């Protein structure tokens, strides 16, 4: 046999399965949004650092076909269809007129959204979401959902931007 014909693959030892432990509970670290210094907290302390209201919120049973995944599929389809652009300078007086379960608008970070289609998909239930209907819900949203990308969740229901002149005193 020549040198090229005598090649064989080396034998590897049997792979060992590493012991997998829950990394979040075993000393890993994460940066927590409520940490004002930007310091890194051990993962065990993250739950303790979470605002009490967020930790105690309760999800409600949703109708069939109304999960967050169902909503995300719907948003993807609707965003492609609508080509959302939005109006400019919507007065707060107009937003206040849309405060019923049949017609609910809200303001979040200076943007106006029609939250009516999202009511039945909200994990906290319609009543919780209606607390921001017809109002600027930014502080309420930050209290419970600071980490949620609302722009993405509500992009198909974006109406426009709030008139900055009417925004003063509009916070709920």
From TrEMBL:
The lineage of its organism: Eukaryota, Viridiplantae, Chlorophyta, core chlorophytes, Trebouxiophyceae. This is Cytochrome b5 heme-binding domain-containing protein. It holds the Pfam family Cyt-b5. PROSITE patterns: CYTOCHROME_B5_1, CYTOCHROME_B5_2. The keyword Metal-binding applies. One of its GO terms (molecular function) is heme binding. Belongs to the cytochrome b5 family. It comes from the Eukaryota. PANTHER family: CYTOCHROME B5 REDUCTASE 4, CYTOCHROME B5 REDUCTASE 4 FAMILY MEMBER. One of its GO terms (cellular component) is cytoplasm. Keywords: Heme, Iron, Metal-binding. The keyword Transmembrane does not apply. It comes from Symbiochloris irregularis. Gene3D superfamilies: Cytochrome b5-like heme/steroid binding domain. Residues 87-163 form the Cytochrome b5 heme-binding domain.
